[in-house]
Amino acid sequence: MSAGTWGLAFAAAAGGIGTIAALVTVGPTRRWLVGILSGLSAAAGGATAILVLVGHGPVTVHLPQILPLAGVELNLDALGAVFVLAVAIVALPASIYGIGYTAHGLNRRSVQAMYPLFIVSLLLVPAAASVSTLLLLWEAMALTSLVLVAAEHRDRSEVREAAWWYGSMSHLSMIAILMALVVFAGHAPGETFEALRMSGRHLSSSTRSFVFVLSLVGFGTKAGVVPLHVWLPRAHPEAPSHVSALMSGAMVNLGIYGVLRVTWDLLGGGPIWWGITVLFVGVTSALFGILHALVARDLKRLLAYSTSENMGLILVAVGAAGIYSSSGNPMLAGVAITAALLHIVNHAAFKGLLFLGAGSVVAATGTRDLDRMGGLLARMPVTGAAFAVGSLAIMALPPFNGFVSEWLLLKSLVQGLPASSVAISVTMPIAVGAVALTGGLAAAAFAKAFGTGFLARPRSPQVEAAAEVGGTMQTGMVSLAVACLGLGLAPFALLDVLRRAGAALPSLWGGEPVRSVGVTLHTGGLTGSLSPLFIGGGLILLVVLIPVVLRLLGVAGRRRVAENWGSGRSLQTARMEYTATSFAEPLQRVFDDVLRPEFDLAVTHTAESRYYVEAVRYRVGIVDGFETHVYRPLIRVAKRWGEMSRWVQNGSIHRYLAYLFVALLIVLLVSQ
Amino acid sequence: MTDSALSQLLGLAIGTALVCAYVVLWRSRLISIVRAIAVQGAAVAVVALTLGLHEHSVEPVAAAVGVFALKAVIIPMLLARWIRQSEELREVDPLINIPASLLAGGLLTLFVYATARQVANLGSDSASRAVPAAIAIVMLGLLVMTIRRKAVTQVAGFLLLENGIALVAFLTTSGLPLLIELGGALDLLLVVLVLHVLAGRMVSAFGATDLNQLQELRD
Amino acid sequence: MTVPAAVGALIQVTLVIAVAPILTGLMRATRAKLEGRAGPSVVQPWRDIRKLLHKERIKPEYSGWVFLLAPRVLLASGLMVVVLVPLITTATALGGSGDLFAVVYLVLLGTVFLVLAGLDPGTAFGGMGASRAITVAALAEPAFLLAIFALSVRAGSSSLATIVDSVLAEPRSLASPGSLLALAAVSVVVLAESGRLPVDNPSTHLELTMIHESMVLEYAGPDLAVVELASQVRLTIFLGLIANLFAPWGIAVTTHPADLAIGTGVVVAKLALLGVVIATFEVFVAKMRLFRVPELLTAAFILAFLAITMSFFLT
Q1: Nearest CA of chain B to the CA of C289: how many Å?
Q2: Which chain C residues touch A447 with a CB distance below 8 Å?
């Protein structure tokens, strides 16, 4: 067995032992064992991925006897390795974080037993090399995550509702993927990916389009793209935070993996409308997601919508790559796909970090409501600093990692023009406009999340009593923060290995799109270059130098703590601060037509006279437009069908016998 | 003037006309809308003038003078006087808010470009390449008429439509016969005067020229 | 990074730090003269900074390290942009890797830190300024990025040096509608990002009308000096960008000392001219209502969008 095979086997074994440990042990022992074993599993998976990416060739495992009818086929190539690496980057810190986090009432047998299995399934899905293996692992991932989402269902009713939504949508996605892959495999000599790849190009174009659309629907649901995203803002907030980090940072990526693998690897790429569809789905997702993140009051809901937005950005890159390769521009397609893969890794890092930070906040204060938080930076310095790093990274600001992938994405879209093809001339300006707008709104959303959540003073007593979380939780967050900074200053190593991943998609690759020379990145043909190390390093150097220069100019060092000036106000309470809702209100007004907020104003007058007001109650709420206008009507229709069909089963034995009789008559008739 | 300078001037004039259409979408003060229409009329005149100089023929130049007189001077003056009389200064509450209408205009322009390319490829010179821009002005005029409520803005939308059509005519045929231009101009003047009288009646009936009030007229 | 390029970058940074307060002083003096006042002297901002440096250092009671770090990050991001942008010479550090997209994100970094610093002390006006500032920044950034897109379509790359070189090589391209629209869009964005009229009045004393000033209400002494200098540096960068992207004649293309001297003189003259033009414009225009500012910024976005699509219609 090669080193890679050992790695995968170790990962699976560590996960299995972790599950057994969870079932067998109790208390702190359980927490520590589950955390350490899951962490080892993630580390082994990550190491295997790195081995594949630096060129040790794909890792193949072939186990025909494990299941009846079809064996287990695993083949981890460079493309899958990128996704396994993204999983490992989140899973290792999240497992360590979970050691401390599950002490807050989540140390139940069911939760802790499912967690290692979840990680193992996340690690193995990108390695699946046959239809049955993929479906099996996909279902394992969905079921384990469902149990994990429903972890606190006894404590809160919202958790039950979230679990229902999540379970239904993940099974709808499973059905779509099943149909797509089964139809595909039906036209192929076998059900392994190798067989599918060979026959992919020879299918009729209607079959290929059918497979493309269904796999986009199925995998897109898992990725949380609009309009199939409604489970995301419900499930991610209610799940335990280290599980939310894994779901947002690792699991949604696998939806993108599915789209890439089925459409551009197995089917071998397609006509230009495929790329255009994916790009427009991405644009809609990005804009819708960030708008709802901007106006969200619940911290984890904000992060969940932001995940939808980032997946939209990645799909914009993938769609652009498809459009470029169908228009005969493989170099730009390569730049776009590199941007997509880099953003996947970066998103895993900073979204995982943000969710772990949010989890610390929830554990310390008991609330997710940003309007009630405040002043947490003074009470939880490590969590606050880590959340600040995550926020700066997701806003794509130097010196952190979001900056590099956003730059690469913009470059790939901008270099497309001037072009002779009308598809590119029409889609690229829209795509750049959408990416630019989401960038601005993301800055606003995360300035709101960090600013109103952590700065100023606490706006409720439970937040005032918050204290910093334990050591393992801090370790998890700090390690991801360091990763964000490292990936931001020195993404070169990663880019070199992403080249191998991109080359695994020959229908989207050409030439050497992104090179790193020393400390500088160059995009294809030296049309653009960026030096993240120079910019980030220069920034940090200047920030350190400025106080030194001030000291040299004779400025005194010590500061006196003084009252706020506050424009001459002498009494300042925490109620006078800007809350999260008021912070985002001017921007919300601009997008009123899209968000359609619901206002409710109730004025109570005094008993004595209608001219005096005793109390005013103002409520504003923003609901997800797709939920109210698309999903709820569909659910109502489904319910009505269900009720109408009740008369079919009314309990009378005679009626059932009559059905049997009629069915037999029909069979006799048809078999004539 | 050299050929390339003329085509640059043509490009600038078309660009100005298109930007004026967006200014009508953007501004809510009625007087600013009227000024934008005036500038656009001047731009249409410049286009006619450029084409006339390029072809060394006198008809487009005469048409340019007439267009300038009518669309950049007379009609804006009438509209300005109308605004002063009706004492309405601003457009209120369009059907979709202004940033959304600007974005809709942008997408509309892209759509026109994507679908009207065949027309642009009919001729080989820069004048026919600019026809989709003129068609975009027509569509923007229709957009303004659909989403705005005050009578003056409706007239402004209609004038955008007119200017767009005139531009398409100039760019594709480099000038209609002078008689047809004259007839079109008189039609335009008549329309503006009729709408002025209608708006006056609306003001005396409802107190404002909000077009939504016309719904009250049904039985 | 070669030694001559490092020297060029150092000269640029020193020049900008020296000139930025004087540029602000020039704009204030112009405005005063046009309004019929005697006005302060042109070097008054430097005197203000010197005065502030010797005042007491203060930390408001409920603020934290974000409040203390923000002035440094604001100034550092501004100086980093100066290193990247070709003001005096196109042969800046890293031989042409100064990318306009990087400039946008560096500017945004400074803005975000200032917004957070407005929220940190927990005052009502600080929060108000922060909320308004992030609205303006969130809507101005897309317009800026699209305008860069328009410029880079023409030049073939979003690298600053390439754009400047392409304009120098073909001056006629400046008169095309696309370039003019991009100029209009960039001008609106510059006015919005640097807090000038009609978006924000830099000399107002009424807190309810402030955007930028209310975020820095709690700063005093040396911190305020750093914030003031950083704002002046940002204004200088923006004006320098407009000058050199749309009128780059006179810029040095090598690091030869004579070229550098000419480049310095030319850029100072261009900055002075632009400053006077903007100050004059400010005298005649009134501040817009806050809720009309998004309309203005969306119009700038559409202008930039048109700048891109215009090239499809007329080539």
Answers
A1: 13
A2: 112, 115-116, 130, 134
Nearest-angstrom CA–CA distance, A365 and A380: 11
From the list C72, C112, C144, the residue facing A395 with the nearest CB is C112
Give yes or no for a contact between B163 and B48, defined as CB atoms under 8 angstroms apart: no
For residue C36, which phi and psi values (nearest 5 degrees)? 85, 15
Mark residue B169 as left, alpha or beta (left: phi above 0; alpha: psi -120 to 50; beta: remaining): alpha
DSSP, residue by residue, A254-299: HHHHHHIIIIIIIS----HHHHHHHHHHHHHHHHHHHHHHHT--BH
Asked which of A363-367, B154-158, C174-178 is least confident by mean pLDDT, the reply is: C174-178
Averaged pLDDT for residues C22-48: 93
Residue-wise pLDDT tens digits, B29-78: 888 999 999 999 999 999 888 888 877 777 778 778 888 888 888 888 88
Evaluate the omega torsion of the peptide bond into residue C198 and state whether it is cis, within 30 degrees of 0.
Answer: yes
Interface of B with A in 139-198 (CB under 8 A): none
**Residue A425 with chain B: CB contacts under 8 Å:** 113-114
A560 touches chain C (CB under 8 A): yes
SS3 label, residue C55: coil
Q: What's the complex ipTM?
A: 0.93
DSSP state at residue A69 = S
A27-58: pLDDT as tens digits:
888 889 899 999 999 999 999 888 888 877 78
pLDDT of residue A630: 87
Contact pairs from chain A to chain C, CB under 8 Å: 256
Domain count of chain B? Answer: 1
Closest to C302 (Cβ–Cβ): which among B16, B106, B130?
Answer: B106
Cβ–Cβ below 8 Å for B126 and C302: no
Residues of chain B with C-beta less than 8 angstroms from the C-beta of C294:
99
Give pLDDT tens digits for A318-337: 999 999 888 888 888 888 88
> Among A125, A132, A133, A222, which residue's Cα sits nearest to residue A170?
A222
Identity of the residue in B12, B98, B106 whose CB atom sits nearest the CB atom of C295: B98
Token pair of B62 as six digits: 């005469």
Prediction pTM value: 0.90
CB contact under 8 A, B114 and A429: no
Q: How many CB pairs under 8 A join A and B?
A: 16
Say yes or no to pLDDT of C71 above 70: yes
Residue C93 above 90 pLDDT? no
How many Cα neighbours within 13 Å face the side chain of A378? Answer: 18
Smallest CA–CA distance, residue C299 to chain B, in Å, is 7
For residue B116, give the chain A residue with the closest CA.
Answer: A422
Q: What is the pLDDT of residues C227-282, one digit of tens each?
A: 999 999 999 999 998 998 888 888 877 767 788 788 888 989 999 999 999 999 99
* Residue with tokens 């000096």, as numbered in its chain: C225
Q: Kindly state the tokens that stand for C93.
A: 């550090």
The residue type at A498: L
Rounded-to-integer distance, Cα C296 and Cα C2, Å: 43
If one counts every other C-beta atom within 10 angstroms of the C-beta of residue B189, the result is: 14
Enumerate residues 412 to 451 of chain A having a beta carbon within 8 A of any beta carbon in chain B.
Answer: 422, 425-426, 429-430
A597 touching B, CB under 8 A? no
Range of the domain at B47: 3-217
- Quick one: pLDDT at residue C96? 47
What tokens does A299 get? 């911290």
What are the extents of the domains in chain C?
3-313
Averaged over A528-541, what is the pLDDT? 83
**Quick one: closest CA in C to B121, which residue?**
C313
Suggest the residue from B18, B25, B115 to mutate for an interface test with chain C (most C CBs closer than 10 A): B18
A74, pLDDT greater than 80: yes
Position A295 scores a pLDDT of 92
Q: In this predicted model, which residue has the larger pLDDT, C286 or B127?
A: C286
